[in-house]
Write a structure and sequence with these properties.
Shape: elongated
Number of helices: 12
CATH superfamily of the largest domain: Vaccinia Virus protein VP39
Order of helices and strands: HEHEHEHEHEHEHHEEEHHHH
Radius of gyration: 21 Å
Largest sheet: 7 strands, mixed
Strand content: 15-25%
Distance between the termini: 63 Å
CATH architecture of the largest domain: 3-Layer(aba) Sandwich
Number of domains: 2
Helix content: 40-55%
Structural class: alpha/beta
CATH class of the largest domain: Alpha Beta
């Protein structure tokens, strides 16, 4: 069988099944072998690996995953794609096709049953409208995952790897970097997809930490501080926290910042992850 990374084969498959792209599922199928190779390389796949692919579409990337990993499980929400996947992936005996919403799917059970509880690798061409919930769901669940290599909107990838003081730095940057080390492996233009999206894309790999890079007494409280700090990012940190409903006074915040050796007029966008952890611990106590 010819690979679906050949655009002509994808077009023929669309015609064969009279397939209609669903906007509600954010469907833009990858049709570039060079980009797929970069994804496979970034994920550092081996024949010992089990891979979870989210949103396989026609199975374009799945074909390559099956050839590079021990076992592949694909989770696809669109029931219209299931018979197509059974066709395009019929040459491979190491793939399982699941018709399910990934946000409701029990990934922990999958890891236990199919990989003996050992870390899996996650690969996906994610629908842009639901990128953050899927990634944060994977990270926050603390399911055993070695790395997550995903295609996302370019501006989201930039936000994930941004550092303090930059325009892209925000709550998403800090949330991702608490759990993983982000690395942009490739920038991908719209012409690599059918249909073409209206924005540029990027492949980003998130290598998960065994332990978070900072110690914090109350993770939930720290992330509430972070979210409040960026809700009004042009205001000082003190004003943002008070206006954001954090149960502390300006005096308490000022005292905490002084004890950290930080200006009381600082904005949230200037604080590092370790400084947010320190501030959280001080305000908690």
């Amino acid at each position: 069988m010819e690979k679906l990374s050949n655009p002509q084969v994808t077009i023929e498959t669309i015609k064969k099944y009279d397939f209609a792209f669903q906007k509600k599922f954010g469907q833009n199928f990858l049709i570039d072998e060079h980009v797929i190779s970069k994804i496979i390389s970034a994920a550092e796949l081996t024949k010992d690996d089990m891979v979870l692919e989210i949103g396989p579409g026609f199975g374009t990337m799945t074909q390559y995953l099956c050839e590079n990993a021990r076992e592949v499980v694909v989770v696809e929400i669109d029931k219209e794609l299931i018979p197509i996947l059974h066709d395009t992936l019929s040459p491979y005996d190491n793939v399982t096709i699941v018709n399910e919403d990934i946000l409701k799917y029990d990934i922990a059970a999958l890891v236990r049953e199919k990989n003996g509880g050992r870390p899996i690798k996650v690969v996906a061409n994610l629908p842009y409208y639901i990128t953050t919930p899927i990634i944060m769901g994977l990270l926050e669940s603390r399911v055993p995952v070695d790395n997550i290599t995903v295609m996302v909107q370019k501006e989201v990838a930039l936000r994930m790897q941004a550092g303090p003081g930059t325009k892209d730095y925000g709550a998403l940057s800090l949330a991702v970097q608490f759990y993983a080390k982000p690395y942009i492996a490739a920038n991908v233009p719209p012409n690599c997809f059918i249909p073409r999206p209206g924005v540029g894309s990027a492949v980003i790999r998130l290598k998960l930490f065994e332990n978070p890079p900072v110690n914090v007494k109350d993770e939930k409280f720290m992330f509430s501080l972070i979210r409040a700090s960026f809700n009004q990012r042009r205001k000082t940190l003190s004003n943002s926290l008070v206006n954001g409903g954090i149960p502390v006074t300006k005096t308490q915040i000022a005292d905490a910042l002084k004890s950290m050796g930080v200006s009381t007029e600082i904005r949230g966008e200037a604080l590092t992850l370790s400084q947010f952890a320190e501030l959280s611990d001080i305000l908690c106590s």
